Amino acid sequence: MFIKFSCGCVGLNDGIDRSIVIHACDLNGEDCWEPLGLHRRDMTDKTYTPLPAVEVEALLGELGHLLYDGYKFRKIKSLLSPA
Asked: pTM for this structure?
């Protein structure tokens, strides 16, 4: 289940001691061109709520596009590499 932490981060709770943060709230500044990623963080001091379905769909769409773009890049790189 995707969750939103009280600080604004979005991620998954692993049920142990550290969560997996997918959208870190502290990476939303002007210096960060892509705030999505995978980060393990201690979020035990934060409360969280389930992420609304509409936000889950948007997040899955963004992650899907990033994965597909990476695949396309590797395919182009492979085509341009000498045999």
From this structure: 0.69
